[in-house]
Amino acid sequence: MTASTPEADGARRRPGGRTARIRAQVLAAVRAELGERGFDGLTMEGVAARAEVHRATVYRRWGDVGGLLADVLDAAGDDDWRPPDTASLEGDLTALNQEIQDGMAARPPIMAALIAASFRSEKAAEAQRRLWEDRYARCEIVVDRAVRRGELPPGTDARRLLVAATAPMYHHLVLLRTPHDPDLPRDAARTAALAAAAGAFADRRR
Amino acid sequence: MTASTPEADGARRRPGGRTARIRAQVLAAVRAELGERGFDGLTMEGVAARAEVHRATVYRRWGDVGGLLADVLDAAGDDDWRPPDTASLEGDLTALNQEIQDGMAARPPIMAALIAASFRSEKAAEAQRRLWEDRYARCEIVVDRAVRRGELPPGTDARRLLVAATAPMYHHLVLLRTPHDPDLPRDAARTAALAAAAGAFADRRR
User: Fold this and answer.
1) Which residue intervals are the DNA-binding region (chains A, B) (predicted)?
2) pLDDT of A68-90, one tens digit each?
3) Which residue of A has its CA nearest to B187?
4) Which chain B residues have a beta carbon less than 8 Å from that of A201?
5) Nearest-CA distance A39 → chain B (Å)
6) Which residues contact B35 (CB under 8 A, 6 or more apart)?
7) In 10 A of CB B127, how many CB atoms?
């Protein structure tokens, strides 16, 4: 569930493309500026200068700071990330939650800054939603595997289970800003796995 | 878990105090401006004008916009709110989640604007954390009652249970911005209640 590194961007996979190269330079500059200065310090001029790309190019292609942030988020989803496979539901959810915790604790705090920026720019908010939607969709295989192993009943609502497992992470890390708790990933995973085993997500509508 | 209405502020309880009256006028103006214009439209001048209070008074007493927001949040916690008592754990948690959903859906969107503002101002963020801390502390009685009714084992970790029940609300409403789902309050409550019955919060550290 973490944002991609610059190396995961399009430029490396299409090494010959000038357009892709410029995009990679600009998005790396956005991440760097965001990490150092936060949303309030992020400007089209600062990004262009840092990326060593013409300001006119940045304006033409990204429009405004919201457009830059949205493209950083879209690029973060343009990778081959797959959820961990630990051979148990609780293990998979714990590993997933650990990635979220690590991502939020990373320095510079790009993931945290992008979430904060989603409250400032509607374009960034939409891109953040697209990224989460994509990540949750990719994670549904965690629930499919648990059903196939017989850990969960068929028909378990994967999305509700995944939100139940991960929501306490985001609540603590993004909203409550609780001090670091190394047990949080496993506690939240275990809670969701116990609820799932008790049939909490077995039928969508009762 | 909702923000208080202007009527719940100190002014009504200390009707004779000029200081309290000014505070009530200013905080009502902050809420109104925030609801109409959001954080970006909130200024010390706009609040002073709307409240019909001297700008110098507003600057002296609240310092800056962050100070105003922090005081709105502190005032929201200065009430006699208690969690609903429906005679069952799932019922109590559902009613609590319903209040959160209603608060986030209210127009003008004061609660949503205050949460968004907590990403802009450290003072507002600290006040938001104090408000949540106070609300969660007041909600612990929900778990105490369930233990006394025999619904939950003694030693159940009230805070973790309450966060598990409410986190999906905040995740959907604040971060994922999912379309309105009338079943969400009950689904999240039921999930937490099932996990609690399965012992998810029975022992703090394993």
Assistant:
1) 43-62
2) 999 999 999 999 999 999 999 99
3) A200
4) 191
5) 9
6) B107, B108, B109, B110, B113
7) 25
A147 burial (CB, 10 Å; 0-12 / 13-18 / 19+) is middle
- Helix A184-197 to helix A89-105 angle (10° resolution) is 150
- Which of A171, A177, A190 to mutate to test binding with chain B, by most B CBs within 10 Å of its CB? A171
Tell which residue, B78, B85, B82, B79, has the closest CA to residue B149.
B85
In chain A, which residue's Cα lies nearest the Cα of B176? A129
Residue B49, Cβ density class (10 Å: 0-12 exposed, 13-18 middle, ≥19 buried) = middle
Which of A39, A166, A178, A191 is the best substitution to test chain B (most B C-beta atoms within 10 A)? A191
Q: Which residue has the tokens 């995740």?
A: B171
Q: Which residues of A touch B198 (CB under 8 A)?
A: 194-195, 197-198
pLDDT tens digits, one per residue of A147-165 = 999 999 999 999 999 999 9
The structure tokens 């939950």 sit at: B152
- Tens-binned pLDDT, residue by residue, of chain A (206 aa): 554 444 444 444 455 689 999 999 999 999 999 999 988 899 999 999 999 999 999 999 999 999 999 999 999 999 999 999 999 999 999 999 999 999 999 998 899 999 999 999 999 999 999 999 999 999 999 999 999 999 999 999 999 999 999 999 999 999 999 999 999 999 999 999 999 999 999 865 44
Instruction: Look up residue A139 and give its two tokens.
Output: 């994670």
* Mutation for A interface: B104, B119, B174, most A CBs within 10 A: B119
Q: Rounded to whole angstroms, how far apart are CA atoms B163 and B153?
A: 18
Among positive and negative, which fits the CA dihedral B193, B199, B202, B206?
negative
Separation CA B64–CA B50 (nearest Å): 16
Name the residue among A100, A105, A76 with its Cα closest to residue A7: A76
Do B170 and A171 lie within an 8 Å CB cutoff? yes
Query: How distant is the Cα of A193 from the closest Cα of chain B, in angstroms?
Result: 8
For each of the domains in chain A, give its residue range(s) and CATH number, in order of start.
Answer: 6-77 (1.10.357.10), 89-197 (1.10.357.10)
Q: What is the CA radius of gyration of chain A?
A: 19
> CA nearest B187: which of B97, B92, B80, B76?
B97
